[in-house]
Design brief:
Blueprint: E1 4-5, H1 8-28, E2 34-40, H2 44-60, E3 63-69, H3 75-87, E4 93-96, H4 106-112, H5 124-132, H6 140-151, E5 160-164, H7 171-178, E6 186-190, H8 197-202, E7 206-209, E8 227-230, E9 234-236, E10 239-241, E11 254-256, H9 262-282
Parallel strand pairs: 1-11, 2-3, 2-4, 5-6, 5-7, 7-8, 8-11
Antiparallel strand pairs: 9-10
Helix pairs in contact: 1-9, 2-9, 6-7, 6-9
This protein binds 5,10-Methenyltetrahydrofolate.
5,10-Methenyltetrahydrofolate is lined by residues 49, 52, 95-98, 120, 140, 233, 258-260, 263-264, 266-267.
Catalytic activity: (6R)-5,10-methylene-5,6,7,8-tetrahydrofolate + NADP(+) = (6R)-5,10-methenyltetrahydrofolate + NADPH; (6R)-5,10-methenyltetrahydrofolate + H2O = (6R)-10-formyltetrahydrofolate + H(+)
Protein name: Bifunctional protein FolD
Domain Tetrahydrofolate dehydrogenase/cyclohydrolase catalytic: 6-120
Length: 286
């Protein structure tokens, strides 16, 4: 058996087409959505991610606002830039690219973002709204995962999901999305303290690997026919590697590749959050 590939790039292109039309409608009403990025330092990986986000903006007609700051900036200078984007009417949503250099306080920076401009959906107020089931910008990677599962009609209701990794961007919030009444999955959150990871993963109809440990999820752990989404990103001597071993696709029913799977959707839903906020401002949504 060879797994069906969950194609993140093709799915991203569909989302971009929809966003392009919505951005055009907003512009007719005199509103142009604007995505801001704050990048601190010169890590080549982070710089590449930020470039990717701005080239996505150009594709769908969103204004790009870039603030690139030197690595040795103070917390006060970083927060002054955050305040500037909070007040900047051209910027309808923005992100502070993570990770920040070690001398800066990441949580203090994230909390200073205006929750209404939080394109990542990672502000504590928005994570709290997600827990309460209130409307809020949703974290982009979990949103991408749910979209990809729906797009390929992977059954979610009643499914047993094993999430591997308890990070704030994926592992913790994805369970909140998948256990909403609209999804109705049953979710187990696994981490480095899990006693028998293989036994947990083997029970799962859907496996979400977001630990950042190359090759952690192997074929012998997979229930035949399961959907396996590889969300891990590790920089190794032989390039970027995901959490899922290559031979998993011989056992799984669905596999999201890495690259080419969830990553492109993370970027698409970042733009989607920015467009949704602009639509609220324009009175085009509830
Ligand atoms: N505030 C903040 N928000 C983030 O969303 C955020 C962040 N900081 N820091 C770093 C991580 C990483 N991340 C990725 C997004 C897309 C791809 C992606 O599109 N990857 C392509 C390959 C690379 C490419 O083609 O450009 C793929 O998987 O096919 C990867 C990684 C977002 N992050």
């Amino acid at each position: 058996m060879t797994a069906t590939i969950l194609d993140g790039k093709a799915t991203r292109d569909e989302i971009f087409e929809d966003l392009e039309a919505r951005v055009a409608a907003l512009k007719e009403k005199g509103i142009t959505p604007g995505l801001g990025t704050i990048l601190v330092g010169d890590d080549p990986g982070s710089a590449a991610y930020v470039r990717g986000k701005h080239s996505d903006c150009a594709k769908v007609g969103i204004t790009s606002i870039r603030r690139d700051l030197p690595a040795d900036i103070t917390q006060e200078e970083l927060e002054a830039t955050i305040d500037e984007l909070n007040a900047n009417p051209e910027c309808t949503g923005y992100i502070v690219q993570l990770p920040l250099p070690k001398h800066l306080d990441e949580n203090a920076a994230l909390e200073r973002i205006d929750p209404d401009k939080d394109a990542d959906g990672l502000h504590p107020v928005n994570l709290g709204r997600l827990v309460l089931g209130k409307e809020a910008p949703l974290p982009c990677t979990p949103r991408g995962i749910v979209h990809l599962l729906r797009r390929y009609e992977v059954p979610i209701a009643g499914a047993h999901v094993a999430v591997v990794g308890r990070g704030v961007t994926v592992g913790r919030p994805i369970g909140l999305l998948l256990t909403r009444r609209t999804e109705n999955a049953t979710v187990t959150l696994c981490h480095t303290g899990t006693r028998d990871l293989a036994a947990q993963v083997r029970q799962a109809d859907i496996v979400i690997a977001a630990a950042g440990v190359p090759g952690l999820v192997t074929a012998d752990m997979i229930k035949p026919g399961a959907a396996v989404l590889d969300v891990g990103v590790s920089r190794t001597a032989d390039g970027l590697r995901g959490d899922v071993a290559d031979d998993v696709r011989e056992v799984a029913g669905f596999v999201s590749p890495n690259p080419g799977g969830v990553g492109p959707l993370t970027r698409a839903f970042l733009l989607s959050n920015v467009v949704e906020r602009a639509e609220q401002l324009a009175g085009l949504s509830d």
